[in-house]
Amino acid sequence: MVKKKIALIGNPNVGKSTLFNQLTGMHQHTGNWSGKTVGVAVGTYKDLEIYDLPGTYSLIPHSKEEEITSDFIINQDYDLALIICDATILERNLNLVLQTLEVTNNVILCLNMMDEVEKYGFKIDIEKLSRILHIKVVSMSAKRKEGIDDLITAINTFNSQKSFQVNYDDVIEDSINYLLPFVNSRFEAVKNIINLKSDNSKINDQLKIISSHFLSNNIKPLELVMNAIYRKCEDITNLVITKTKKFNRHKKIDKILTNKITGIPIMILMLMAILYISIQGANYPSDLLFNFFMWLKNIMNDFLLNICIPKCIVSLLIDGVYQVLTWVIAVMLPPMAIFFPLFTLLEDLGILPRIAFNLDGYFQKSNACGKQALTMCMGFGCNAVGVTNARIIDSPRERLLAILTNSFIPCNGRFPSLIAIISMFFVVKSNIFNSIINVLILTLGILLSIIITFIVNKILSITILRGMPSFFVLELPPYRKPQILKIILRSIFDRTLFVLGRAIIVAIPAGIIIWLCANIYINDSNIINIVSNFLNPFAKFIGLDGTILFAFILGFPANEIVIPIIMMSYLSTSTIIDVGNLSVMNDVLINNGWNIVTAICVIIFILFHFPCSTTMLTIKKETGSFKWTILSFILPLVIGIILCFIVSHIL
Amino acid sequence: MSLCDLKLQDKAIIKNINHSENIKRRLYDMGLTEGAIVKLILESPSKLIKGYLIRDSLIAIRNCDAEKILVSDIYG
Q1: % of residues, chain A, pLDDT over 70
Q2: CA-based nearest residue in chain A for residue B26
Q3: Model confidence over A539-550: pLDDT tens digits?
Q4: β-sheet bridge partners, residue B71
Q5: Contact B49 A223 (CB under 8 A)
Q6: ipTM
Q7: Are residues A93 and A181 in the same domain?
Q8: What is the pTM of this model?
C-alpha cells in the first residue's frame, strides 16, 4: 500500500514536534529527498508518512532552515500539508497558512493550544474559519493529547476543494498571471516576483520584464505582497475571534524577570543553582559508576589473563583503554544528565529568550548578540553543545563569535578540577569561610571568562570579523507549563548522549596513547618524563611545569582526565588514578613544587587552553572550515599563555 | 517619529520600514508590516532592546533597528 505523504509545517514554538512525536512515537528516521542532503525527521503513523519540516514563519525564506521548508512545500510531491498554528497568536500564524494555500488546496489546519485560548479571554469560531478558508480546521491541544483523533479522521476523510486565495494589488496579480503558465503554483510565481530571480530558466526573460517594470514604476513587490497577506490575516481574525473577557497578555512575571534591578541577579542565581545542583548531585552517581566500573575491571582483568592473553596487552586494554573510557563516562555522564534537563526546563518555560533579552544590550556593546548568553550558559554544561547551540543565532558573524569564544566558559568537565584546586590551595581555618572563599574564587574565575569573552568578541569583530552588528530580532514566547517527561527524554537523547558518544570515540585512542606514554621506557624514564622534561623550560616560563603542560596535551580528548594524568605522572603509576583524598593530593602536588602561584596559573590554564577534541570536532562540523577550527584552538591557548605569564611574573 | 521614541504602554501604527529587503523579510515574519499596530510593553535592563506587542506576540527589537521603523503618532 502506498503511504500518504504528509508535510507537517508551522511557526517555531507551536507544538509541532510534540504532535509529531505523539503520532509517530519511536517510528522515526532522518530522511533526505531528491537533490537535497538536508536531513528531515520522517515518521510513520499507520498508513501515513509524516515529514516534520523545520519551523518557519514564512515560505519566503531568509535562513537555510526556512529554505528547506519552503522548498519542500513549493517543489516536492506530498498528499497533504498539515499546518500547525498557535491558536493564541492566530493572526500572525495565518500568514503561513495563507501562503501555503497559494501553493496547494490540500491543506488541513490544526489550531493547537486551544486549551489556552479561553484563558486568554477570547473564542475562535472554528466553523467560520473553515468556511472562510475552504479547508478543514481541527481544534486541538497536542500537549493534553486532545483533538488528535479528530485530526486523524480529518486526514482520512480528506477531500480536496478550491481553497481561499489572497487578492493582491493589480500589478502583482498581473505579474502572477504572466508567470503562471510556467510555474506550478501561484505562490511559486509570487516567490519569483519577490526574488526577481529563479532557478527555473524558462521564466528568466519574463522576470526581466517584470523587474524593469517594477523598477521604473518604483514598485516594491515584497511590501505589496506581505501587506496584502497580513491585511487578510487581520480581516479573517476579526471575523472569527470574539473577545469574552479582558486579558492582559503581558504577565507581571516579565516585569520582574526583565526588571532593571531584579532581572539580571535572578538569572545569575538561577544559573548558579543549576550549576550547584549538577555538581553536588553528580557526586553520588559518579561514585556509583566508578565503583561499578572498578568491579567490572577486576573481573575483566582476571578473565583476560585466564584466557592467556599476554600481560602487556591486557594492561593496554584494561589500564589504558578501559580505565580512561570509564573514567570519562563516570565523571562526565552524571553532571550532564542533571545539567541538561534543568537547562531544558528553563528553555521550555520560556525563560531563555528573556535571558537573551536582558543581556542583549551588553552583548551589543561588544558587537555580539544576546543569544550568545544562551550558548555560553550551554557551555557551562558542555562546550560542544554550546557550539552546536550557536545555530539559534541567525546572523553568521555573531554566530561565529559565539562559536569561537564558547570554550572560554568552563564546562562540567573542568569544574571538578577547578573546585579541587581551589579547595586545596585557598584554605583558611574556619569551615564556613572556606566554602565562601571557594565560591568567591570560582566566581572570579567565571567572571574572568565572561570578561575575556566580551573583549575577544570586540577584538574579533573589529578585526577579522569586521562589520556592524547585524540585525537582531527575538520573539519572547509566553510562559508555558513544561512537560517534564519530554524534557528529560529530549535533553538526554539530544544532548547528553550526543556528547557522550563523541567523547567515547576519542577516549579510546586517548587511552592507548596515555598508556603507551606511561609504560614505554627509554633509558629508565618513560615517555611522560621525557616529554615533560622537554616541555619544562617553557612551562616554567608561564608558571606551570612540564608535567602539567603535558597532562593538558594528553587530556585533549577530555578535560576530565587532566588532573588524573598529573597525579599519574607525579606518582609514576601505569594508569590514571584517583587519589581520593584531597589532602593526600595536596601533599603530592606540594612535594612536586606546586605553590599558590602554580595553582592560580593552573586555574587560568584550565579556563583558557584549547577546546577538547569533542568541541573541536563540533566546531569543524558547525563552521565547515579548518580556518575557524584552528583559530578556535589558538585563541584560548594564546590568551591562557599570556595570562599565565603575567600572573607568574607579577606574583 | 520612529518606533524607538515610544514610551511604555504607547500604541502606534507602523508607517514605513526603512530597512533593507533582507531585514524586512524577518520583520514581516514577526508580523511587523506597514499598517500593523504596535505597543511598547517591555524594556530590557539596558534599555537598548525593547519588547513590543505585535499581532498578539511579544517581539524584541533593538533601538538601533527600531530607529529606522517609522510610526504614526501615538494613540490609545
Answers
A1: 96
A2: A62
A3: 999 999 999 999
A4: B14
A5: no
A6: 0.95
A7: no
A8: 0.86
